[in-house]
Amino acid sequence: MVIKKNNYFHDGFKSEEHKKNFDVWNKMSNNYFRYVFSSFEENKYLLNYQSEKNEFTILDYGCSSGYLKRFLNFFYGKNYTYSGYDISKESVNLAKKLYGEENFFSEDEYLQNNDLRKKKYDIVYSRDTVLHQKEPWKFIDELVSKVKKKLILRLRTRNKGDTILDIQNNYQVYANESKIPYLVLNYDELIQYLKKLNFKFIVTNRSTTILGGKYNRYLDKSLYLKETEGAETSILASFEKNLNQKSLIETYNLEGHKYLKEKYFKTLFYKILNRLKI
């Protein structure tokens, strides 16, 4: 993968505030963390489409403070080899402290390590990164260049309307008042793009929501409308064939915040465990 320094991200991701925002995952109790993190479909893909018996390698691109490794440790123990990369040196330093120096790489460390840059992985996992790229299609290409078997993504899509790549009018105000791109891909365009990259099996989940008007997002006016059918979307794309012979499986399961809200009493139980640090 060819990574050019500062090519995709803005300074907000390198701030102390960014590190603190995502450190919340590390501070949850074990039971609460597993419950909440498992509510997201892309994390279910890791469990449903990867055998516990087979060793595998995984690149966590945009690893933040390393909480995916915590999640994998619960289910796979030592049966996998993990590498985490993030542009935030502050977050990477925290991840190293929590989960091991050898597992994580900052931007400078990655760029200076030729062997690491050339390496491919059984699974490339990248959560909430594609939407923040100036050139999302190119970024997906670069992720795919690191994949041996499976690509797992979390991003944002729209069923109605074209992909809009205008970052001047589609952005999120983030830490230190930085503006970062917030780009929403047309779902059908995304699926066709992945098929052209020769993936044989694709699984998607769309948890529909209005994307505009939340969390300091400033987006195209169509993304403030329910009719646009915006979604928080999880993707698994595999170079391996599906044994069921289906090349595309599409679901519309509630996930994340919506799932936790619907499962109110179950979520309350786990919140109590979290307070008790169980």
Provide a short characterization of the protein structure.
The protein is α/β, with parallel strands linked by helices and 278 residues long. Helix content is 35%, strand content 23%. The strands form two sheets. Strands 1, 2, 3, 4, 5, 8, 9, 11 and 12 form a nine-stranded mixed beta sheet that branches. Strands 7-6-10 form a three-stranded antiparallel beta sheet, with no helix packed on it.
Key terms for this structure?
278 residues; alpha/beta; Rossmann fold; nine-stranded mixed sheet; three-stranded antiparallel sheet; 12 helices; 12 strands; 35% helix; disordered N terminus
The proportion of residues forming helix, as a percent range, comes to 25-40%
The termini sit apart by 40 Å
| CATH topology (fold) name | Rossmann fold
Task: Estimate nothing, just give the exact number of structural domains.
Answer: 1
* Beta-strand residue fraction: 15-25%
Shape: globular
Give me the number of helical elements.
12
* CATH superfamily membership: Vaccinia Virus protein VP39
Query: Structural class, judged by helices and strands?
Result: alpha/beta
How would you characterize the largest beta sheet?
9 strands, mixed
CATH class type: Alpha Beta
